[in-house]
Amino acid sequence: MLVVEKNALSEEIEGYVNKYGKDRSSLMPVLQAIQRKHSYINDFAQQEVARLLDIHPVEVFSVISFYSFLHSKPTGRNIVRLCRTISCDMANKSKIVQAIERELGIKFGETTKDNRITLEFTNCIGMCDQGPAMIVNDRVYTKLDPEKAVNILNEIK
Amino acid sequence: MKEKLRAPKSQQPLVVEKPALEDGIGSKVTVEINEKKVQVLFGQTILDACKENQIHVPTLCHHPDLCIAGNCRICVVEVEGMRTLQTACSFPITAPIKIKTSSPMVRKARRHIIDLLLSEHYGECYSCVRNNNCELQTLAKEYGVDSYTFGHVQEPVYEMDLSSYSVVRDMNKCVNCRRCVRTCIDLQEVGVLEAIDRGDKTHIGTFLEKPLADVICINCGQCINRCPTGALRANDPSDVIWNAIDDPTKHVVIQTAPSPRAAIGEVFGLEPGKSFTGELNTALRRIGFDVVFDTNFTADLTIIEEGTELILRLYKALVKKEQTALPQFTSCSPGWVKYLEHFYPEYIDNLSSAKSPQQMFGALIKTFYAQKKGIDPKDIVSVALMPCAAKKFECNRPEMMDSGYKDVDFGLTTRELGQMIQEAGIYLPEMPKSNFDDPFGEASGAGLIFGATGGVMEAALRTVFELVTGNKIEDVFANADITPVRGFEGIKYAEIPITEVGPVPKILQHLVPDWNWLKGATLKIAVAHGTANAKKIMDDIKAGGKFSECHFIEFMACPGGCIGGGGQPIPTNEEIRKMRAKAIYDEDNSLPVRKSHENRHVAEIYDIFLTDGPCGKISHKLLHTHYIKRGKYIA
């Protein structure tokens, strides 16, 4: 990272810390804010958060690794999360998986080459009665079939 | 003042305030443990209540030095009226409950827990460094595990982390008890290890899963001492040392520090609290070490060098009115040195430039001793028996080559030497006693007490006080026991007024003309052990508080000082540390010479080798070092 980039990032994180409070318990909102803006939390940002909240970098990393909605490695611009839990699985989730993977040419857990989409599984998102379900960024799509899922993905920029 | 807990309220364990009076109204609760009525203190945990009543409850993640975690579940007991089993270590007694520590349900649950732990624990006991000293192994034996109900790992899952000079991590043996996490974060405030990932993927890892050598580890080895299994161990050089011993062209020299001598009996199953100095000397010679030296000799030298440095700094600040880095920090603990280099690099000038006793000895062995004996320094293999994991790192620092060779070749811990002695077929406690070898044969009690927290300060005070005032320290502190700096309080503070001054002793005459500038001054000193306490002092200094006015501060990275070091026998807890300290103070009391400046060998070495005196050119070359501003950012 360039020094200028580092300074800008530090300043940004300082802003979040001022907003959410300089306390251990504001770790989550601060991380979420960084995640929203940058789509991942890089190692410098993690250490800056640790410094500003007076905790250890490894604690920040531990929290990031605990939550699947927080990332410490770069992801695509859009994150597609398909529910893998029982109800969706029984509602033919595997068909959707096949269709999506074939369409994008990548497996789940990977990112497309143009950095457009990252595919991920997620645990239950509470749409058990309307499965199979997936989340694209913040939006939930339910009652998917392979065709519908592929159409949704193709509409993402 | 109540200390601020780091964790938010919601994450803190349920702790009930203890009653003010032990026999006041409502301070006792009558509970029934295994159908026996006993009175216990209100708020006491079930585990403590059981311990007091001689009822054994197994534990794994619980450690007396650390906060309660309650995550291994091995200590579960049945509490009448509760639907589920409760963890004894984290359940405070507040009502007259009925507890069963050994019911069919409890036994079955515990057995299942052990089986589950074993199902993820890779490794064979006989090739493990912790064989016969492993808490998981003990539990398996206690609960009669004769088969792997839930299977057993056949292949290693994680690669071993051999990157660090001091600590080896083998996560295949880890049982996720998080003792190392609590040690590193709460006890030492270093923060190397944390639980990474979630659920069945949870494992203990470093920042960005980097190897240990690339993260900010101070090598104190406290995590090794807390680990219940062999997942964390010290980097063992004993095979290479055996090779050197067996090589007739090599002259193998060992120096022994006082703390291992006070603790090595524990390796042989003895009660802590007795030093085996004489016995160890014989055992080391029988193993095949050519000469055995006493690190206390260079501890005495350290006192002279560091004391002189302090006097010079004070002289510069008080008389010449120049900008000087005060307070001066001790530099004997390599863990503390690295901690300061990482977390407070701006205070590096405050660190005494004197090397630690181990490194001073290393430099002297390969120069003074080699010349005297006519041995080529390249044929000398210099081993240091230390209670410390960080000493392994220290002897590998690139700047520690002042003799032209690697000053100390290997740092050996108490545990590893205990193992070597056993391998040689020697039962240490039955050895005849023998003395250290010349030319560094005798050391003073001042060097000895370096092992306990406050020891360096006490040793320095004994010398500085006498050199400055010309009076005997016994006139101020009975029996030369400087009690204000002794004991296991996290931070100790003392003030020593200098009411009169004497003539300047000969070895310092070329540095200061007289002591009049010190007359009426008050020497302010502080002592801290454990880097968490060091952090408190450093933050206070940064804020310009009370400790910034100190003149001399002793820091030790490990709780209790060297006697609680990361290379000491396992287990280590407060009681054991107290016993070890007692062993050291007892030995100090039994010695005829108890002050560094009265050690005749020290005087001799300034006469014939370090001819330009303390902090002179030769001693600066060999006995002093410099430090690196490391900072705390991990690239």
Short recap of the structure:
The complex is a heterodimer of chains A (157) and B (635). Chain A has 157 residues and is an alpha+beta fold. Chain A has seven helices and four strands, in the order H-H-H-H-E-H-H-E-E-E-H.
How does this structure look, described?
The complex is a heterodimer of chains A (157) and B (635). Chain A is of the alpha+beta class. Chain A folds into 2 domains: 3-66, Arc Repressor Mutant, subunit A, CATH 1.10.10; 78-155, Glutaredoxin (3-Layer(aba) Sandwich). Chain A is built from 7 helices and 4 strands. Chain A has a 4-stranded mixed beta sheet, with no helix packed on it. The model of chain A has no long low-confidence stretch (mean pLDDT 91). Chain B is of the alpha/beta class. Chain B folds into 3 domains: 9-102, Ubiquitin-like (UB roll), CATH 3.10.20; 115-234, 2-Layer Sandwich (Alpha-Beta Plaits), CATH 3.30.70.20; 301-354 and 442-623, Fe-only Hydrogenase (Larger Subunit), Chain L, domain 3, CATH 3.40.950.10. In chain B, 32% of the residues lie in helices and 12% in strands. Chain B has 19 helices and 17 strands. Chain B has helices at residues 46-52, 104-119, 135-142, 179-187, 222-226, 238-246, 258-267, 277-287, 295-318, 334-343, 357-373, 390-394, 414-423, 445-448, 455-469, 531-542, 574-590, 600-608, 617-623; strands at residues 28-33, 36-41, 76-79, 86-87, 98-100, 167-169, 194-196, 203-205, 232-234, 251-256, 291-294, 328-329, 380-386, 410-413, 491-497, 522-529, 552-556. In chain B, a hairpin with a 6-residue loop joins strand 3 and strand 4 (86-87). In chain B, helix 7 packs across helix 17 (574-590) and helix 9 (295-318) packs across helix 11. Chain B starts with 27 loop residues before the first strand and ends in a 12-residue tail after the last helix. The chains are: A alpha+beta (157), B alpha/beta (635). Chain A binds chain B through residues 23-25, 43, 46-47, 55-59, 61-62, 65-66, 72, and chain B through 6-8, 185, 190-198, 205-208, 215, 632-634.
